[in-house]
Amino acid sequence: MSEDNSCGCHGDTERAERDPAYRRALWLVVLLNIGFGLIEIVGGFIAGSQALKADALDFLGDGSITFVGLLALAWSERSRAKVALVQGLFLAGLGLFVIGMAAWRALNAVPPEAELMGGIGVVALAVNVAAAWILSRFREGDANVRAVWLFSRNDALANVAVIVAAGLVFWTRSAWPDLIVAAVIALLFLHSAYEIVRDARRELQEPVHGT
User: Fold this and answer.
1) C-alpha angle with apex 93: 42 to 152, nearest 5 degrees?
2) CA nearest to 101, candidates 43, 33, 67, 51
3) 3-state percent helix, strand, coil for the chain, nearest multiple of 5
4) Per residue in 11-46, pLDDT tens?
5) 52-56, 81-85, 147-151: lowest mean pLDDT where?
6) pTM of the model as a whole
């Protein structure tokens, strides 16, 4: 993506090309995000928690976007923009799916397993703190560099919300805290997808250099 990409989900591709340490940090964050996202989505189904499923999709979305961004380092900006557009639409579909599932569960509200939900939320928080720590040495730089670090930090805040929701589920014996947090995470997911699609469309509308 171009340097003015406000989403920043791909990281700073120019810096990744010339800075091996930054590129290695991004690869490590990709592995953490995708690896734990797969674990968390299984845990979400076992615990019956929509918030965990939404958080897992957030992990998978962040990891896959950065992964494709790293693979596409040698591609043209226009090719990266096309891939980003597809990713953004896909992520938007996932966000709408989570909101739909939360609405359906609201009609058949069954409290999730609060202990398992909280335990997975704590591990998710630890993973995001680790990702933020890995990227912390690169947080001073241009907008894209800071954005990647901020995304990991903000994801950690979402994990705190999941943990709080688990506590409220345990206390109230109600599914509503889980459903509310799932909806909030899904809305944030949709906002990120919107930014990706918006920036990708803007780049595709820009004239190709050298023509």
Assistant:
1) 60
2) 51
3) 80, 0, 20
4) 555 555 567 887 888 889 899 999 999 999 999 999
5) 147-151
6) 0.73
In a domain? residue 4: no
Could you give the C-alpha distances from 109 to 94, 103, 138, 190, in angstroms and in order? 21, 9, 43, 24
**Residue 29 falls within a domain, yes or no?**
yes
How far apart are the C-alpha atoms of 162 and 198, rounded to whole Å?
29
pLDDT at site 167: 92
Average the pLDDT over each of 33-37, 89-93, 149-153, 205-209 and give the range with the smallest value.
149-153
Distance, in Å, from the CA atom of 113 to the CA atom of 197, rounded to the nearest integer, reads: 36
Sequence-distant (6+) residues with CB within 8 A of 200 are 1, 81, 82, 84, 85, 88
Residue 210 is assigned to a structural domain of this protein = no
Domain tally, the chain: 1
Q: How far apart are CA 180 and CA 185, in angstroms?
A: 9
**How much of the chain exceeds pLDDT 70, in percent?**
78
Residue 197 counted as domain residue: yes
**What residues make up the domain containing 111?**
13-203
Lowest mean pLDDT among 41-55, 89-103, 113-127, 161-175: 89-103
Residue 210, number of CB atoms within 10 A of its CB: 4
Supply the angle between the helices 20-47 and 114-136 in degrees, to the nearest 10.
Answer: 170
